[in-house]
Amino acid sequence: MRWVAENIDLLGAATREHLGLVVAPIVLSLVLSVLLAWLVSRTPRIATFTTVASALLYTIPSLPLFLVIPVVIGTALRSPTNIVIALTIYGLALLVPTAITSTRGTAAPLVEAATAVGHAPRQLFWQVQLPLAAPEILAALRVVSASTISLATLGSVLGVAGLGRLFTDGFQRGLQEEIISGIVLTVGLALACDLLLVLLGRLALPWTRRSPGVRT
Amino acid sequence: MDPAVAGGAHVSLVDDTTAWLTDAVNWSGPAGIPSRLGEHLLVSLVVLVASVVIALPIGMLIGHTGRGVVVAVAVSGGLRSIPTLGLVTLLGIWLGIGLEAPIIALLVLATPPILTGAYAGFRAVDRDVVDTARALGMTPWMVVRSVELPLAATSVLNGLRSATLQIVATVTVAAYVADRGLGRYVIEGLRTRQYGEMLGGSVLVIILALVLDVLFAGLVHLLRPAHVRAASRTVTRPNTTERHLVT
Lengths: 216, 247
Description:
The complex is a heterodimer.
Chain A: H1 2-6, H2 8-42, H3 47-59, H4 62-73, H5 80-104, H6 108-116, H7 121-151, H8 155-158, H9 164-173, H10 176-204
Chain B: H1 10-22, H2 33-65, H3 69-80, H4 84-95, H5 100-123, H6 127-135, H7 140-178, H8 183-192, H9 195-222, H10 226-231
Helix pairs in contact in B: 1-9, 2-5, 2-7, 3-5, 4-5, 4-7, 5-7, 6-7, 7-8, 7-9, 8-9
């Protein structure tokens, strides 16, 4: 604990760096996967392609992906951009299939009812299918958030800053306190983000809240 | 900023990688690609078998009895939120350079998907089917072996598939402390700025992961329950909320 007290600035800085790495991929994968699901609802032919592409991208191990991205897009090897792009790819690999199947999975009678009360086909996705699919997408987003925060620590092997540098630095110096602090902070950050997502979900999706006193 | 890989230099990186991958020197001897690939596969197989032995019976028991699901969800969720590199480096300084640290780290990371695949698959079996099997006079063991396990096969195998991906990826990272397997090229190349070696190793790991995943997909397809085979042509896909990348 003395080590923690003496190095509180380092821990704070590493946490801030880590947040800088993970917020963009989490937000981007949510926005892009909803847009892709919308595209699929307009042109169902691309559904198989997007599902297969997601499964393939998911398969690529992360450390190799971090290293191959700079070659493909021409960034510097130790640029945080590589990590952000790689984490967004993993986020999409998890979220896109969920977004597509859950928005497509709206029960036929609901779609018919929505059409009957006057929803045009182009309104259906945003006003009926997406709101109904939202709880499922939120559940997948929580998984994305947890795995993104954990995966981002691997960037330190390349020399990208973040909580992961507590692992590489702690290993080189043989400091177990530093590594344990890094693990605790990573898990803590993941839990905090998960809680935040649950709260945001309650605010943004009031229709998923059960009204008090009513049991279903 | 690393001038060697900035901007237009990435064309030469592709050349370096091709050169490294096609150099005959890299394909022979104890440091050659075949022996490192063998090492990678052997470590992965040992860990996979060990984690199946540990997690599959527990997962089946939880799924069969319906007891301990909450604990199982909490434990596997907790284990999965531990960052791989943190676990590998911590065990590395406790146990020293060698294979012990990565193997323990690998076991911790590979058991959750197997456990989840097993109990989720067993829980998803229609309770009426299980009750019918009991009513026909099947013993609990017969119910597990002849009813629940075949019906849960897809879920169990998808758990194994996730675990295998996880293991292959983590063995790569474990080279950071153990210097074994294909990850050694990646880590060594990074340290010494031999980018051809680093990227060559990365390409090999990616190919290995893709090949193993395709093999598993084939196995899942072959071993899917008869009624699924007969009823539909839908592609079986692991439930995304059960999947969770940590490496």
